[in-house]
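From the methods appendix. Each design record in this collection lists the tokenized structure first, followed by the designed amino acid sequence. Records were kept in a plain field format so they could be parsed without special tools. The example shown here is representative of the layout used throughout.

RECORD:
FOLD TOKENS (317 positions):
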């Protein structure tokens, strides 16, 4: 059963710190620190969290009995992403002019156009770019923004379609509350099905079309959907484990291990995302599962600490 969400979800300081942990792992990977050879998995943490927060926003529209305002949803994300992206692009152009040989500047300029429209990941996949051996591309890291932006465009439309199906199913229901529950259940199970299909496609593509598996929004949608499912289950601050602090703490230990251990043991020779991406995605889900009470445990307090929270707040820039 998928619970409906109240209008004002609880703030999760531990999630802010989880963002900080994820961005620290990504930076360590790009810095070439040998211990963090698998820290590229942290991008999946961001996809899960993005799906979690976006679904909370979308379900608040539905909880109020109205339709999803796509214009507002899109505008918020664009204005969150665009200013910092503009700074990065201008700085990259300046650096390329200063540091690159004239013959190499054309390649940077060629990548600049699709990246500016959050489509760099599609171009990288189409060109067969190997993420782990293309360090000369100063814009390669922007692929994650392309995936997130594309999913932000697609996911609300999927939820709107599922809500429409739910309304059709609930047309004969007289009670407003029962009608609302049926709509929410339809959206919840629909997200589960879409996520399962995306996961199956991701596993298949990891061997059949590895570049598209890595850079494609369709093969990353399942992580986004996992966050969406958790928004239904714990988005208002409730816990999957009810009031069991021990269960919450145990889930957090397993969750942190599922994120940190792959950062040490995975490497670029593995087929990714594929099946092994279940580990960091599952770890993120376990940390989300604790709800607002998760911030009260030892791990929750560590995640909510000032350094990690600060990193989390500036994780996108």
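DESIGN:
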């Amino acid at each position: 059963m998928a619970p409906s969400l109240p209008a004002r979800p609880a703030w999760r300081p531990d999630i802010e710190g989880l963002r900080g942990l994820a961005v620290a792992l990504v930076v360590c990977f790009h810095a070439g620190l040998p211990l963090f050879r698998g820290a590229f998995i942290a991008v999946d943490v961001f996809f899960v969290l993005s799906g979690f927060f976006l679904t909370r926003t979308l379900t608040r529209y539905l909880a109020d009995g109205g339709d999803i305002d796509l214009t507002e949803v899109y505008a918020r994300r664009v204005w969150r992403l665009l200013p910092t992206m503009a700074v990065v692009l201008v700085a990259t152009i300046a650096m390329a002019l200063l540091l690159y040989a004239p013959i190499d500047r054309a390649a940077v300029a060629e990548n600049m156009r699709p990246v500016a429209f959050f489509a760099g990941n599609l171009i990288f996949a189409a060109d067969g770019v190997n993420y782990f051996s293309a360090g000369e591309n100063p814009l390669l890291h922007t692929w994650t923004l392309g995936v997130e932006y594309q999913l932000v465009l697609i996911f609300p439309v999927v939820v709107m379609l599922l809500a429409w199906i739910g309304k059709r199913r609930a047309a004969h229901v007289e009670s407003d509350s029962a009608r609302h529950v049926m709509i929410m259940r339809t959206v919840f199970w629909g997200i589960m099905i879409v996520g399962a299909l995306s996961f199956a496609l991701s596993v298949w593509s990891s061997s059949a079309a590895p570049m598209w598996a890595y850079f494609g929004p369709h093969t990353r949608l399942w992580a986004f959907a996992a966050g969406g499912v958790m928004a239904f289950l714990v988005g208002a601050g409730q816990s999957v484990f009810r009031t069991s602090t021990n269960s919450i703490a145990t889930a957090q230990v397993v969750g942190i291990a599922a994120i940190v251990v792959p950062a040490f043991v995975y490497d670029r020779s593995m087929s990714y995302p594929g099946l092994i991406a279940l580990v960091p995605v599952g770890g993120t889900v376990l940390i989300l599962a604790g709800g607002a009470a998760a911030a009260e445990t030892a791990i929750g307090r560590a995640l909510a600490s000032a350094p990690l929270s600060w990193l989390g707040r500036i994780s996108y820039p």
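APPENDIX NOTE: DSSP finds 13 helices and no strands in the chain.
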